[in-house]
Specification:
It is built from ten helices and seven strands. The chain is α/β, with parallel strands linked by helices. The protein folds into two domains: 33-225, P-loop containing nucleotide triphosphate hydrolases (Rossmann fold); 230-283. α4 (130-137) links the parallel β4 (118-121) and β5 (144-148). The longest helix has 23 residues, at 2-24. It is globular, with a radius of gyration of 24 Å.
Length: 289
């Protein structure tokens, strides 16, 4: 009888222990920094998921943004070599290669510096977990770029405060081995009507606006991307066609590329790449070097 009672007690303890573990959530994962050069942050179990084959293109194929490209390369190389560098906000027109440039520059700087430079992407919805990520990254023995793509904040969204804390680092300061790169269509990361609403309802309107704008001020470098001209668009097309050896006459290439941009109603690096994919498909040529 006593043995039966002990058995039931042990079973009940095991059930309670399992329930507590479910409430506590998964245990923090063991992160393997040697698994890849690029990672995606998964905050549920504090895991840095390795990306074996990053979706990026060679930097030589990114056309029409020479000035900002050179600034970003210089800042990234200095950081990779252990020198002071700034957080960077890449903002402006859609489809002009902001995120592609970040990934391409990371690959270039990692190769040239041989510093083991890593790129960690944080999804927009996980911005609030940046302080936890910083605690993990500060223990790394190599430089890390934290990358937030297509970053912006909407009404009643207070997670921007976590980003501000991560950029400044609070009382401890941002880890010396970490910089933050973000891309956005908005220069100040917040919609204009959101800032105007804050201004209209605040006791001191100017302080409300300063609170919002101060978020982008924490990025030391602002790199602007603007809509490309027709000439720049055609230069992008020509660069892709040469790189992939599509073998189409320039006159025909230009005519088809301009027709494609007209149907899309815009000219950008993204539109140029979409045209090249369509053209290569019609020519039955794979997009390989």
């Amino acid at each position: 009888m006593q043995d039966e009672h002990i058995t039931r007690l042990l079973a009940e303890i095991a059930r309670l222990n399992a329930a507590v573990e479910r409430i506590a959530g998964p245990a923090p994962a063991v992160n393997d920094w040697d698994a890849a050069d690029c990672f995606v942050w998964a905050p549920a179990n504090q895991h840095l998921q390795p990306v074996k084959r990053p979706n990026r293109i060679e930097i030589a194929l990114i056309q029409g943004v020479d000035h900002v490209r050179d600034i970003l390369i210089d800042n990234t190389l200095r950081f990779a070599r252990g020198l002071p560098a700034n957080n960077v906000l890449l903002w402006g027109a859609r489809g002009m290669g902001k995120s592609s440039l970040v990934k391409a520059v990371h690959a270039l700087a990692a190769k040239e510096s041989e510093s083991g430079l890593k790129l960690v992407e944080v999804h927009r919805e996980d911005i609030a977990t940046l302080p936890t990520l910083m605690e993990i990254l500060k223990e790394a023995s190599f430089p890390v770029i934290v990358f937030c793509d297509d970053l912006s904040f909407d009404h009643d969204d207070t997670s921007y405060k976590s980003l501000k804390a991560a950029l400044d680092g609070g009382i401890e300061g941002r880890p010396d081995n970490v910089v933050l790169y973000a891309t956005s269509n908005r220069r100040h990361l917040l919609p204009r009507d959101m800032m105007e609403n804050e201004q209209s309802t605040a006791i001191n309107p100017s302080e409300a606006v300063e609170e919002k704008v101060s978020l982008s001020d924490r990025f030391g470098l602002w790199l602007g991307f603007y809509k490309c001209s027709q000439q720049e668009y055609l230069e992008m097309i020509e660069a892709y066609a040469r790189h992939f050896d599509l073998g189409i006459p320039v006159e025909q290439l230009h005519a088809e590329a301009l027709e494609w941009s007209t149907t899309r109603g815009s000219r950008s690096g993204r539109v140029a790449w979409q045209f090249i994919q369509d053209l290569a498909g019609r020519l039955e040529k794979p997009l390989t070097k």
